[in-house]
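BUG: 3D viewer hangs when loading the predicted structure for this chain

Environment: internal workstation, default settings.
Expected: structure renders.
Actual: progress bar stalls at 90%.

Input used:
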Amino acid sequence: MNIFSSVFKRPVCKTASHADDAFEQIGLQTKKEISRVFGRSLAIREVDCGSDNAAEIELGNLSAPHYDIERFGVTFVASPRHADLLAVTGVVTHAMATVLKKTYEATPDPKFVIAIGDDACTGGIYLGTYAVIGPVEEVIPVDLKILGNPPRPVEILSGILSLMRSAGKPKFMDGGPDYD
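Structure tokens produced before the viewer hung:
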């Protein structure tokens, strides 16, 4: 048997799992809700306040080809001035508290804040140590907490969906701002 015959006997493509189907359904619902709330895509600015990078890896996976979150109208942006949502990871260290506050203030209204991961939500194992302030809500208001160490991409997208479902349509979407 040569190498080519063994390669072509195996399936060329992997069939989608039930988890992939669930992610697709959540993504389509999220796209609908984002359109209802914003009338356009959702821009996310990720802020790492002192994490172990586990939550950042899962956020990065959302943009990877397997999940491709941009097809659902969700993009990551480099500037808080272009963001609708701040995704904050890690316990807030003393060194990052001012940066987090300034990032929050630079994000235009209406804005949402999601604390992603156990450290961002509760302070995790670092709570009470000399270098940290604590969870994100100790520094800025938090609209949603997604627990997990780290939470999986489908849990992050489910959290965004629940946040969009609970959000009303902002005033500026009703015909523009009133300049009287």
